[in-house]
Amino acid sequence: MDETPPNDSGTNQAGLERPEAAPGPAPQEANSKPLPVPQALDAWDQVIVRTRRLLREEAIDAAWITRLTELTIVIRQLAASDPDLALYVLIEANGSNVEHYSAQHAMTCLVIAELAAEWMEWPQEERRVLALAALTMNLSITVLQDSLAKQSSSLSEVQREKVATHAASSADMAKCAHPLEKVKRADFPSETEDLRPKT
Fold first, then answer.
1. With 0-12 CB in 10 A as exposed, 13-18 as middle and 19+ as buried, what is 104?
2. Nearest partner of 163 among 133, 137, 141, judged by Cα
3. What's the whole-model pTM score?
4. Range of lowest pLDDT (39-43, 100-104, 132-136, 187-191)
5. CA–CA separation, 78 and 111 (whole Å)
6. Of 66, 74, 87, 67, residue with least CA distance to 27
7. Short-list 126, 167, 190, CA closest to 118
8. Other CB atoms within 10 A of residue 97 CB
9. Distance from chain centroid for Cα 174
10. 105 has pLDDT over 70
11. Closest C-alpha among 124, 121, 92 to residue 108
12. What is the model's pLDDT at position 177?
């Protein structure tokens, strides 16, 4: 995942408004009790499918940003309740299902980044932004990345160009989601509510 230095412009690298940090419980504090393993596995299956669909959507707008934010909260809550299971599910998925490698890779990066940020005691607001960045880092090449995971030949010049510019392109896609309006923190789902899938 590309490292991006902090800035003082009031926005993150994806162009989303950086809201004022508000004190409150971390996502895992909504409900830190681990789910029974069968239920947790089913929950991860549901979240993986949601992520695949969301990252392949063509209409990237304010409503999409809200769904993205809710999805990052769900992933963080699931990972916090059982980190070992989270890593097992995602690493196994990356190795066994290359059809949807891009989404699964983004989720894996999100979970690892979240665990590292927790260990380093990052503020909750920075961890929230980090999760959004991890899940959307390859937004502009989701389909291409899935294809490349199955491709045995060298990249074409067109593919190389898309890969080389994907960071900026992905950020531009997020910026275009709200050209005339700012995404407000109040519009985002609550991190204090347990949003893990119920079965």
1. buried
2. 141
3. 0.73
4. 187-191
5. 9
6. 74
7. 126
8. 13
9. 13
10. yes
11. 92
12. 67
Query: Do 137 and 109 touch, CB atoms closer than 8 A?
Result: yes
Out of 35-39, 92-96, 134-138, 180-184, least confident range: 180-184
- Closest to 52 in 3D by CA, of 65, 74, 71, 70: 71
Single-letter amino acid code for the residue at 13: Q
> Residues with Cβ < 8 Å from 1, sequence gap 6 or more?
109, 113, 133, 134, 137
Q: What single-letter amino acid sits at 119? A: W
36: Cβ contacts below 8 Å, ≥ 6 apart: none
Please name which of 24, 45, 46 lies closest in space to residue 125, comparing C-alpha atoms: 24
The encoded tokens of residue 73 equal: 């909260």
Over the stretch 49-85, which tens digit does the pLDDT of each residue have? 999 999 999 888 889 999 999 999 999 999 999 999 9
pLDDT, position 152: 92
**Which amino acid does the sequence have at 137?**
M
pLDDT for 162 beyond 60: yes
The C-alpha atoms of residue 132 and residue 71 are separated, in whole angstroms, by 9
- 123 CA to centre of own chain: 18
Q: Which residue has the tokens 């239920």?
A: 39
Residue appearing with tokens 């549901």: 46
Whole-number CA gyration radius for the chain: 17
Rounded Cα gap, residues 153 and 159, in angstroms: 12
